[in-house]
Write a sequence for this structure.
């Protein structure tokens, strides 16, 4: 019998060594596997390379991992945000390395790793600072630069539901990097709201087939759902709504 | 005297050039205003690069869903017919030329259609590019929405960009508060002048030689 479920988040992140490269899903806070990140912090792993679209928001999740000084290097597209003060502080004093990658190239480099592509020519970034030093080629009259896959030792991602084979469904724009990161890591670890019996997920609706998944842990239903139904009552950070939080939820960056 | 139109009027002007059935990405900042002026009776589908087609307006505060946000990480809603997809597919849609229009902001646009909108190159600033370079090459038509002049009075339409480039030769058309300009192989061509503005006045403001309307 195949059973990829693990009892708790500590078991889910067990064995992640110092120096590991870890993909962490999420776009800002949406889809960020906060419970797995908290367990990673508790595990003590350090000297990590993190691949994420951003570089942490506020003081929780990825930002907390950075604040705990566990991250040596981050690969991302948009580190500077209105609430990225933890990264900003570390970067300014030279305590974290940054590889800046255009968002679509980041996604495609991750996808390429999972799909066994050696490298690919992308039109994104041609003629810009971010393509300097990269092999260029003109194909059918269009200019491209060579981009290499990004692989990871581990991926930590968040999904809505999973089964013991690791099949996953996501929720709305929280899907973002989950499906591609799941394919690109040697060990893919997933937190889900709920583990459902095998056969409960509609095979036509499975987004990530279990072949890409190694460990699944249930962390309980997200605060804005009740028995699967959206109930709201939170701000965009998922915090209970107060009179001031709606205004504070205004973003201005990507 | 020259005429400048408001941000909202400019957004309305851009919206009028977007036809029914278009798949459109509105960049972060001023371009998002365009959504407010797309006619309700036309089916124009908004793409947000974090993974959705069929994006609707902001929700009521008590209906904010942290799993349903746009590329600016602001809460949005889902229209009937919406679809979700992962980042690989989303940027494939852009890179693959499936979107009809992207509307983007700019620091500078050159006569050759180069766009600079992601970095001022200021020493010590933290670099962040996000999807800017992908958006710049991510649609059949790239519209820029911007003030013609900086706060200091310098022209954002330039012979060549001095800020770091986002994309090369990618801009189709520039919508400014003074008028609308097409990028052509011979430089900027005036498509429309607002109020009583003249080509000569805009040449004086930009320091560029502009082609007149209809030429």
């Amino acid at each position: 019998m195949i059973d990829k479920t693990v009892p708790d988040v500590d078991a889910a992140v067990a064995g992640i060594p110092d120096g590991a490269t870890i993909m962490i899903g999420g776009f800002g806070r949406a889809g960020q596997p906060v419970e797995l990140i908290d367990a990673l912090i508790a595990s003590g792993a350090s000297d990590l390379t993190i691949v994420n679209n951003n570089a942490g928001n506020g003081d929780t999740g990825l930002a907390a991992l950075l604040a705990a000084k566990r991250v040596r290097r981050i690969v991302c597209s948009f580190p500077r945000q209105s609430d990225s003060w933890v990264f900003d502080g570390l970067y300014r004093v030279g305590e974290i390395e940054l590889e800046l990658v255009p968002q679509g190239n980041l996604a495609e480099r991750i996808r390429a790793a999972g799909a066994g592509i050696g490298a690919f020519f992308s039109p994104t970034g041609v003629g810009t600072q971010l393509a300097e030093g990269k092999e260029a080629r003109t194909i059918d009259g269009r200019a491209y630069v060579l981009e290499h896959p990004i692989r990871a030792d581990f991926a930590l991602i968040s999904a809505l539901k999973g089964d013991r084979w690791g099949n996953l469904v996501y929720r709305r724009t929280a899907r973002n990097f989950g499906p591609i990161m799941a394919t690109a890591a040697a060990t893919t670890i997933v937190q889900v709201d709920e583990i459902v019996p095998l056969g409960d997920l509609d095979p036509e609706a499975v987004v990530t087939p279990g072949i890409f998944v190694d460990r699944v842990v249930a962390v309980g239903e997200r605060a804005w759902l009740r028995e699967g139904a959206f109930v709201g009552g939170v701000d965009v950070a998922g915090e209970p709504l107060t009179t001031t939080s709606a205004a504070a939820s205004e973003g201005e960056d990507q | 005297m020259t005429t400048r139109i408001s941000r909202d009027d400019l957004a309305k002007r851009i919206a009028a050039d977007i036809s029914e059935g278009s798949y459109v990405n509105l960049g972060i900042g001023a371009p998002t205003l365009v959504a407010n002026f797309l006619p309700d009776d036309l089916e124009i589908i908004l793409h947000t690069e974090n993974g959705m087609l069929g994006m609707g307006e902001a929700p009521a505060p008590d209906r904010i869903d942290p799993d349903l946000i746009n590329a600016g990480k602001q809460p949005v809603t889902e229209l009937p017919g919406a679809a979700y997809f992962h980042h690989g597919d989303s940027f494939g849609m852009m890179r693959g030329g499936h979107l009809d229009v992207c509307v983007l902001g700019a620091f500078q646009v050159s006569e050759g259609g180069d766009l600079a909108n992601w970095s001022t190159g200021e020493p010590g600033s933290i670099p962040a590019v996000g999807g800017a370079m992908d958006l710049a090459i991510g649609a059949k038509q790239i519209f820029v929405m911007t003030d013609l002049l900086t706060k200091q009075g310098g022209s954002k339409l330039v012979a060549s960009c001095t800020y770091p480039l986002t994309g090369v030769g990618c801009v189709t058309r520039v919508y400014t508060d003074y008028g609308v300009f097409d990028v052509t192989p011979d430089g900027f061509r005036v498509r429309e002048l607002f109020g009583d503005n003249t080509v000569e006045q805009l040449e004086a403001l930009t320091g560029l030689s502009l082609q007149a309307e209809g030429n």
